[in-house]
Design brief:
84% helix, single chain, mainly alpha
């Protein structure tokens, strides 16, 4: 029997790395390098825990045995990554526009 969530497992893991960890690291480097307003650092307080939660939920979904539960966890992890992106990248853009 073929696992219907096999591709979802791979794509969710890839989404967490590319769209979760990547932007969080980039915004952190912008703040520590002084290339963005210091108030953007406050966005990291909410964004980093969202990305970490997405990593944990994605790992639990990727290693789960029940396809229904695994699919729900993987979808939840992608939603957490989307929320973190909106907070980090959207907040960075808004704060930069307000500072200019």
């Amino acid at each position: 029997m073929t696992d219907a969530t096999r591709s979802l497992r791979w794509y969710a893991g890839l989404a967490v790395v590319l769209f979760g960890i990547g932007p969080a690291v980039m915004v952190t480097l912008l703040v520590t390098g002084g290339h963005t307003p210091r108030s953007v650092g406050f966005l990291l307080i909410g964004g980093i825990p969202l990305v970490l939660a997405a990593v944990v939920v994605a790992a639990r979904g990727m290693t789960g045995t029940d396809p229904e539960v695994a699919a729900r966890r993987l979808h939840r992890s992608m939603a957490l990554v989307a929320g973190a992106d909106v907070l980090l990248l959207g907040g960075n853009a808004l704060l930069r526009m307000a500072a200019a």
